């Protein structure tokens, strides 16, 4: 019978305490893994994948508010910018394209964005990826062509049970109780899922924004008079240099625009990390709780080993009498402890990914962000060896007690 | 020419004391004691006379303050604790009064455990044959809780012999058995040790057990510790 078989037998013999220790460690590790995975994927979603936009031209105000509104359909734009100024920016040498939009409308809790129709053909919601209406991709219909047509993002369509030819009246505002326009628009297209916040929006033609009934004469005039026309902002595509990097001239362009009194240029990849600075304490608290649960689980392992040792004194003394050295029984307890920790950490790793898998659909519905259960967080590379090492430490004191065990004292006949 | 047979056990001037050596009286004082290879001996004496302590000295579990304890040609007093553990694992089988079987292990596993620490390949056919020999061929996978007292002691006998030791030390091996089982187990123990060419030292205070052996050593004559104290232990 090998050393390892004795370890296995012992773990099975004390299956209840072994099982409880494994489960508690697994829960702690699962929390650590899930929190880390969601944190890293959120960060990646916000700073890389969710963009597809080099820069956003927006009104004066909070750059973070502009990014959240333009890219994530959250918050409200702090103001408007003149169409003529946008046209001027488009003429810049390093701006290769722009797509103007006007926000501020909604329908049944989903944002309604008035946007240039080229959004569906030229805009890259992720680097190199365009919107699709193809049924094989999960889309339906076509882009809007007239002022009374609309297109729905996949999640908005699913949540509101929208179909082609469904109609709706947009709300003038994004808050409950805001007035509803009398204009009835018809859905002619449903976008294929993109896994981005764009899935949660409804799109109408930019021109429709100005002609909606209820907007004042001043806004109505913007439909025909470009001099007075205003937009909420525009997605800008910037020229690339060798290696795919954004042209460094964007810094000068940003400086010049920001010096003006009419608009500002916001670079999402610079702004979004600030969001994490603001909400960073939340995931630190979550990580702290997960680490605490893991530490408590290891403490439980220690207590379980110490109490099991009381029951096992006779068995260990017998092994000594059969020829096991002090080092052998020391190793036996230590390996048992490490094995429990290792098993707990491995199961925790699996549970952690299961938690992410279970949470993905809910997060996607709520935020439009796509998460992968298969994403490997950086902490995962360390967590199994680290927990196994901590398991060894938890077993150290019980192992020393086993090492010091008196053979004859513990083998004395029990009456 | 006389051929000298090396003794399996040879004790000279053994003195063992507990606690403060300068203040306490000896527990064991054995001027000389020997056992030949394949020899079987019953060591008898009243409770408290130091029989079990004597056996623990032979097993290397206790080391005397002075004297020589040679087992299989090796002076145990010259070995460190770990070396004695390894020596015991390889050469000495031990049988307890209370069997001391591991409750989570089957009969077969308990016997396998007896050979685990001997640092030699476990002879599975030999172990199965031993269990057959002690009448437990049909109870290999039963745990101690499902075995009778007599069957448990048979497992303990097989376990002690699993590593093919040179000597078996049995401490009151029938202490937990009824008289009928006592005779049966003692006979079995003697027979199996003879078959396995293994020396046997049985410590017992039971006349039934002691009477079964040709060589019977009264421990009070072996251990001189109490002679001068006039105690019988």
Which descriptors would you attach to this protein?
heterodimer; A: alpha+beta; two-stranded antiparallel sheet; 13 helices; 15 strands; 15% strand; B: alpha/beta; Rossmann fold; four-stranded antiparallel β-sheet
State the strand order across the main sheet of chain B. Answer: 6-7-8-3-9
Topology as H/E string of chain A?
A: HHEHEHEEHEEEEHEEEEHHEEHEHHHH
Average predicted confidence as pLDDT of chain B: 85
State the low-pLDDT regions of chain A, or none.
Answer: none
The number of helical segments of chain A is 13
Structure overview:
The complex is a heterodimer of chains A (415) and B (233). With 415 residues, chain A is of the alpha+beta class. Helices cover 53% and strands 15% of the residues of chain A. Chain A has helices spanning 3-13, 15-49, 63-72, 83-90, 119-122, 154-160, 206-211, 217-222, 250-259, 268-321, 326-367, 380-403, 407-411, and strands at 55-58, 81-82, 95-107, 110-115, 124-126, 129-130, 140-141, 149-152, 167-168, 171-172, 185-190, 201-205, 230-231, 233-238, 264-266. In chain A, strands 1, 3, 4, 7, 8, 9, 10, 11, 12, 14 and 15 form an eleven-stranded mixed sheet that branches. In chain A, strands 2-13 form a two-stranded antiparallel ribbon. Chain A starts with a helix and ends with a helix. Chain B has 233 residues and is α/β, with parallel strands linked by helices. Chain B has one domain (9-222): 3-Layer(aba) Sandwich (Rossmann fold). In chain B, 33% of the residues lie in helices and 22% in strands. Chain B is globular. The mean pLDDT of chain B is 85.
